[in-house]
Specification:
Length: 129
């Protein structure tokens, strides 16, 4: 497992589980915090507008099996705006519509990765136990 904490439960999927309803779900943090908050927030860095852009662009591209969801804080605020794509569990930090276009094309259509935007577990911040 590549998480920044040792798994206490291991993998959870079972062979008897139903197939996933969506091929992919993208959780885009749109959390709002008061100005001056020490951790900042993704919405102050443009995540709401960029999430709306991503949703509209996914629809335009015909990605019917991909869901672009609004998410609350994903707890990696300092690195944001950020998103996580499941079931892969791949995180991205993005800034522009061009970044969103690249994530849609490369990750969600071609099944590859946008290495330059990926957040790795070692990027932190680290899960507190
Ligand atoms: S405010 Fe976006 S990850 Fe916390």
């Amino acid at each position: 497992m590549s998480a920044n904490v040792e798994s206490k439960t291991g993998r959870r999927s079972l062979p008897t589980d139903p197939a996933p309803y969506y091929e992919a779900q993208v959780f885009v943090c749109t959390n709002v915090r008061p100005e001056g908050h020490p951790r900042g927030c993704c919405s102050a860095k443009g995540s709401v507008k960029l999430r709306d852009y991503m949703k509209a662009k996914a629809k335009q591209l015909g990605l019917k099996t991909v869901r672009i969801n609004i998410a609350g804080c994903l707890d990696r605020c300092e690195l944001g705006p950020d998103m996580v794509i499941y079931p892969e569990g791949v995180w991205y930090a993005y800034k522009t519509e061009a970044d969103i276009d690249e994530i849609l094309k490369t990750h969600l259509i071609e099944g590859k990765r946008v290495e330059r935007l990926m957040l790795k577990p070692a990027d932190g911040p680290f899960v507190k136990e």
